[in-house]
Amino acid sequence: MKKKTITTLFLCLMLSISFSAIAQLNAPRASQQATVSQRVGVSDVSITYSRPSVNDREIWGKLVPYGMNNLGFGTSTAAPWRAGANENTTITFSHDAKLEGQSIKAGTYGLHFEVKADNASTLILSKDVDAWGSYFYDKSNDALRVDIKTTSVPHHELLTYAFNDVQANSTTATLAWEEKAFPFTVSFEVTKIVLDDFRTKAKGQVGFQRQNWEQAASFALNNGGDLNEALSWIDSAIAGQFFSQKTFNNLQIKAQILNKLEKEEEAAAVMDEALPMATVLQVHQYGRTLIANKKIDKALEVLSMNAEKNKGVWPTHYGLARGYSAKGDFKTAIKHMRKALVNAPNEASKGRVQANIDKLEKSEDIN
Question: Among 109, 167, 238, 305, which is most buried by a count of CB atoms within 10 Å?
Answer without folding.
Answer: 109
